[in-house]
Amino acid sequence: MSRIHVLKPGLMTTVQDLGRPGWQRCGVTPGGAVDACALRLANLLMGNPENAAALEITAGGPTLRFAEETLVAIAGADFEASVNGARLPAWRPVRLGAGAELSIGMARAGIRCYLAVAGGLAVPRVLGGRGTYLAAGFGGFEGRALRAGDILKIGPAAAWAKRFTATLAGAEAMAAARWEIGAAVRPKYATAPVVRAMRGPQWEAFDAEAQARFIGERFVVDARSDRMGLRLNAAGAGLLKEPIDEIVSEGVATGAVQVPPDGQPIVLLADRQTVGGYPKIAMVASVDLPLLAQLRAGDTVTFAEIPVAEAQELWLANERLLATVKQGIALHAT
Amino acid sequence: MKLAPLGDSAVIVTMGEAPDAVTVAAGCALAAALEARPLPGLIECAQANASITVFYDPARIPKRGGASPFQRVCRWIEDRAPVTEHAADLSGHQVTLPVCYGGEFGLDLEMVGAAHGLTADEVIALHSGAEYFVSAIGFIPGFPYLRGLPERLHTPRRPTPRTRVPAGSVAIGGAQTGIYPFDTPGGWNLIGCTPWRLFNAYSQAPSLLQVGDRVRFRPITPEEYGVSRSS
């Protein structure tokens, strides 16, 4: 089994997949990649199942040495990345030679990228998922972010990946495919995106002014944002003139926009809690969650209201697009 | 029963106004019925207090006519609603948890008593004399929100949360009592500690308690706590 040696861990690098659904009744968050679309695309480039485990790299990346020849791909935010000093291109499969040293630097735009390897990272499933659940200290690699000296194992690569790696064979430390996932397929990352959202279950509990401000006003991302939630600050005062009573705690979902008593909205992300008592003014459309996953402190976001049926149509259209991408990639090694 | 969208991939089903035993029992019955014969595309049902949240993948819900995936999931839930009519009582397990009250095990026991003009022993007698039921599990994995706390013990949360509450701590927050499964920050008043493990991620039944379970507390001595902890 091939291995990856962690020489430098980066600011916060964790093993993530598409999460561990099925345990919210026990208080276990589904978790997984914050930018699930980028993780899926990185895995598709490897011929992996879409939910294979990969590295989620945050803000500043790790330095890794690959013991054997490995096919890798980076997707998501734009990071500096190089192999033995030569620039590594993102959004395409890249063959690394045995002993290659991959150095991922700082994010140039966005904040999270995903490094997938053909065969996926071989960490044990815990409650059905391979993702790292930092708050509870389980899953992923020993339930924590990577540290220098860690050694990650790689699972068996798919037949497609083996065939494709052979087309890139050579003596060099790195050989990249001549094709990539095009910009039309990637999420439309931006530093000031307009994000589509539906009315939340407690929309009516907010007064007309708060509703009007939420739809249309520009919110600034707070530095305290993390895998649990994206904290937003309204320009000027918070959204609430008077606090709204807490509701009887109920289930929440990723993309829920909670408004705590200080009136500053929090969008729940992958490591959210499973229940919450703050009123939810809105729910972000699933198809736009990757845009929020990539925002940094100081970036801004504006919300546009859409009906549930439209958000579902957008999701279905995006799924059809990903299915087309998957078919297209399969053709590259036939 | 009221259905509302929770975004494009979940429906929140409100079973009643308040998380009383009848409402929670109805939620348990509906969640069990939904999961017994799942619709393709159903991801999970998570019950909490007066509602259950049904998670689904809109791309995998079978198409029918011009209805949206949300509408189709709602119809499927409504078709199963009659099961709630026969769910008059909680059918969950009964669990009796050993608790070592006070001292280093429950730093706030004296303070909770003082707030209500009760001695520490009276607080213990009241807390361990009541029967509770689990209305939700959340905040962190395996943390049970228990209803049924005698009114004389209702105590507001601490103004400033502690940065670390030890695992096993039995605590009072407002009208509820709960148990911390992990060392974690927490704002509830600590009155005791159980040596039992509330959550184990490596088990196929990771949470000791489930929504709908009935819970009692049995006072134990520090010696019994030590024996139980090490066994």
Q: How are the SSEs ordered, and which strands pair?
A:
The complex is a heterodimer of chains A (334) and B (231).
Chain A: E1 3-8, E2 12-16, H1 36-44, E3 54-58, E4 63-66, E5 70-83, E6 86-87, E7 94-96, E8 101-117, E9 151-153, H2 159-167, E10 174-176, E11 194-199, H3 208-214, E12 218-221, E13 229-234, E14 250-251, E15 256-258, E16 266-268, E17 275-276, E18 280-284, H4 289-293, E19 300-305, H5 308-330
Parallel strand pairs in A: 11-19
Antiparallel strand pairs in A: 1-4, 1-9, 2-3, 3-8, 4-8, 5-6, 5-7, 5-8, 7-10, 11-18, 12-13, 12-19, 13-16, 14-17, 15-16, 15-18
Chain B: E1 2-5, E2 10-14, H1 21-36, E3 42-48, E4 51-56, H2 69-80, E5 94-101, H3 109-116, H4 120-129, E6 132-137, E7 144-147, E8 162-165, E9 169-173, E10 176-179, E11 184-186, E12 189-193, E13 214-219, H5 222-230
Parallel strand pairs in B: 5-13
Antiparallel strand pairs in B: 1-2, 2-4, 3-4, 5-12, 6-7, 6-13, 7-10, 8-11, 9-10, 9-12
Write structural notes for this entry:
- The complex is a heterodimer of chains A (334) and B (231).
- Chain A is an alpha+beta fold and 334 residues long.
- Chain A has two domains: 3-186, no CATH class; 194-318, Cyclophilin-like (Cyclophilin, Beta Barrel).
- Helices cover 16% and strands 30% of the residues of chain A.
- In chain A, the strands form three sheets. In chain A, strands 1, 2, 3, 4, 5, 6, 7, 8, 9 and 10 form a ten-stranded antiparallel β-sheet that branches.
- In chain A, strand 15 and strand 16 form a beta hairpin.
- With 231 residues, chain B is of the alpha+beta class.
- Chain B has two domains: 2-86, Gyrase A, domain 2; 94-230, Cyclophilin-like (Cyclophilin).
- Helices cover 24% and strands 29% of the residues of chain B.
- Chain B has five helices and 13 strands.
- Chain B has helices spanning 21-36, 69-80, 109-116, 120-129, 222-230, and strands at 2-5, 10-14, 42-48, 51-56, 94-101, 132-137, 144-147, 162-165, 169-173, 176-179, 184-186, 189-193, 214-219.
- The mean pLDDT of chain B is 94.
